Amino acid sequence: MFFRRRFRGQKGFTLIELLAVIAILAVLILIAVPIISANIQEAKKTTCESNIKMLNSAIQRYYFDNGSYPGDLSALVPKYIDEMPECPLANDGDDNNDYDANYDKTNGKVNPHNHQ
Prior knowledge:
Strand order of the largest sheet: 1-2
Number of strands: 2
Structural class: mainly alpha
Radius of gyration: 28 Å
Number of helices: 2
Strand content: under 5%
Helix content: 40-55%
Shape: rod-shaped
């Protein structure tokens, strides 16, 4: 009896109302997760493309200074770039974690991986 008098007339949320709110939040999360995931993948792809442009620029500077293309990309460090960049997409199951595999010594170009 004590509890009935104490809580009589007080307003609160019912279990059904709480379940409805949780269901709405779950639906919103299910909609948001794929969108966020796609944006993360696009950012990784853009980072890889940016790194390739930076490496190609460093290779050209090396060529202008030395008259030939570097034998490998490690020759660019530390004079032309601070450190070798890594493609974030390469950590998604691809074994090529650096750009050496894409470096063409004949024309001095780093070509992109075919990431999806």
